Amino acid sequence: MKRRQFLTGSVAGAAVAGTALATPAIAQDVKQWKMVTAWPKNLPGPGVAAQMLADRITALSGGRIEVKLFAAGELVPGRGVFDAVSEGTAELYHAVPAYWGSKSKGILLFGSQPFGLRADEQFGWLQHGGGQALYDEMYGRFGIKPFLCGNSGPQMAGWFRTEINSVEDLKGLKFRTTGLASEMANKLGMAAQAMGGKDMFQALQTGALDAGEFIGPWTDSALGFYQVAKNYYWPGVGEPSSAEECGVNAEAFGDLPDDLKQAVSLACESLYNPVWTEYTTKHAQSLKALVAEHGVQVKKLPDDVIAAMGKAAAEVIDELRQDDDELVKRIAESFVSYRDLVGGYMTYADNGQMNARASVMGY
Predict the structure, then answer these.
(1) CB–CB of 154/240 below 8 Å?
(2) For 155, which DSSP code?
(3) Structural domain of residue 313, as residue ranges?
(4) The CATH number of the domain where 213 resides is what?
(5) ω into residue 235 within 30 of 0, thus cis?
(6) 190 belongs to a structural domain
(7) How far apart are CA 47 and CA 141, in angstroms?
(8) Residue 290 lies in a domain
(9) Which residue of 30, 130, 225, 254 has the fewest C-beta atoms within 10 A of its own C-beta?
(10) Can you tell me the mean pLDDT for 19-46?
(11) No. of H helices and E strands in the chain?
């Protein structure tokens, strides 16, 4: 980014850029960083958030780090971004931890967990419950420094071509999902499959998939799932929230001076709430439009299905607590401890408030 463009584009950044003007040696030392993402460019939700992060790192660094975004497939495939950053092909990526279970199942807990943490609780675990140190330790094995930088909030249970009336209806169902939700689905007799949003649309269209979940109404609308499946089920207990992450090549991050390390860290942290609340707002608007304009049927999963999912989810977490990898066990124990701590409090706090509002307002 040219200095003149930067100065006219950000009042806050101008103060930082002014410092660079006073120090020509620093101004000349501009780092050109490549960000690879798991998303199509500007995909509503994660694609938009990725560009916001690239722009914010550039701004908060005073233009001393120029981040150029490469969407999925432009430099590396979407599912190849972790390895690209680990190996130094790119300096950072934007994706979700749910995609890296093949590296270690312990990674999956940092993004989402069936019947697990909400978006605010997920951030709380990392910031105040010891989660970030474990996050750093796990990703350090792969030469990556990780940061949470957003959250999609509660996801939906998914798009189904046929109605779900009992647990038996799930058996043999070809279902797109990711992360620990895949393991929960498999325990229920479903055939969980991981694929991108565009591939999920085509698979639903051809019948290669019977159902699938991606993110939520905002992103799902843009991908057109309502055109091939009209039954949209909730609640998305497989992912009560889904954190988005920025992974930075550890060597590149370590080479930064302290102020630029702080700029990268603050860029990620400062976007978590804006990204989350944008998802919440756009999800609400999009769901209303899906029903009114596209005839989508929003349906609640039967209680016995939710109960069966809960049982399967508990087994998934218990297996992580008994994993052969000592670090995975520590991550799982930390997650369970924080979940139980805040879960007990939420009975009186947010859950109490939401239940009270619903009893009076109906929502």
Answers:
(1) yes
(2) P
(3) 158-239+295-361
(4) 3.40.190.10
(5) yes
(6) yes
(7) 27
(8) no
(9) 254
(10) 77
(11) 16, 11
